Amino acid sequence: MDVKITLSFDESVIKKAKKYAENNNISLSRLTEFLLRKVTSSSYQQLEDLPIADWVNVVAEGEVEYHTRPKKNKDLKDEYFKNKK
What we know:
Number of strands: 0
Number of domains: 1
């Protein structure tokens, strides 16, 4: 079952991603789903652990920037005790 979501990206990234998807005969939605499926099917602990494929350089420009939300105190406490084991 498909579920709709709203995402925000830099306009130039979207233009390049749409062009990439079109050249590979896939919709931008399916391309995004494919990438999310790959990321969530593996055991990546942090964004920095993700392998960056060559095609990312096609749709991205400049240095990679990860925008993450700060962890909440409960998350930090849970992570601390998890790592103590």
